[in-house]
Amino acid sequence: MTTSTGTDWAAWQESWDRQQESYMPDREDRFRIMLDMVEALVGTAPRVLDLACGTGSITGRLLTRFPAATSTGVDLDPALLTIARGTFGGDERVHLVEADLKDPDWRAKLPYDSYDAVLTATALHWLHSEPLAALYGQVAELVRDGGVFMNADHMIDDSTPRINAAERAQRHARMDQARRAGALDWAEWWQVAAEDPVLAEPTARRFEIYGEHADGDMPAPVWHADVLREKGFGEARPVWCSPSDTLLLAVK
Ligand SMILES: C[S@@+](CC[C@H](N)C(=O)[O-])C[C@H]1O[C@@H](n2cnc3c(N)ncnc32)[C@H](O)[C@@H]1O
């Protein structure tokens, strides 16, 4: 996707979306409901923190729907941040920050100390529950009173093993179908990035940082709601769910 005339950042965004959608066919629904709830609770010109932003998937959809919004994207992955910078470079509404959310001081790198909405998708399952609870405490301090936090991710309720097994089997069968139809999986997508002249170097660095990342699972939605209330939010509950995923909303 890099030619002699430059890099086609929109093509990288598109290819990232197709790869992610092959795992989550409902991904756009999750984003849509997330932005519906942003509008409902903090309006159409919010200051947003896109936590573990990757290529800026939330930021892009936010600014398309709410042109008066602003966004700070934070991530640790140098390759995905390169795509985000290529996409949003020159847009004064967007700040991109390279930081590790497990670093106790990551918030010092942010341009603001308060946000109307902190939003995250398909990312925090990379953190175990202890560092995740600590992160929720830090997020609670960043959200202004009346502001919101939303996390859309794969959250597992261990009390329903048969439902989980059936859902998982169906989801994997559909992923296999997507592969047969030509969708790149995670490893193949990174292989393409590693061969791109512009992304090769940051991709090598991201593998030094993360290694071969294996996806983890998150605790049940009720765990997130309980911890978020414990950390300072007034209300917290799911506002959308599919058989595999939940969008959890907390209001401060
Ligand atoms: C699957 S991607 C999702 C990106 C984006 N939210 C989306 O939905 O397209 C997960 C992201 O979480 C980021 N991430 C995981 N652990 C992180 C950490 N400790 N600090 C910062 N970012 C992290 C990864 O670098 C990656 O960009």
From TrEMBL:
User: Carries keyword Nuclease?
Assistant: no
Keywords, A to Z, come to: Methyltransferase, Transferase
Record's protein name: Methyltransferase
Which Pfam families has this protein been placed in?
Methyltransf_25
Q: Please list the GO terms describing molecular function.
A: methyltransferase activity
In the record, biological process GO terms are:
antibiotic biosynthetic process; methylation
Q: Methyltransferase domain spans which residues?
A: 48-147
Under InterPro entries, the record lists:
Methyltransf_25, SAM-dependent_MTases_sf
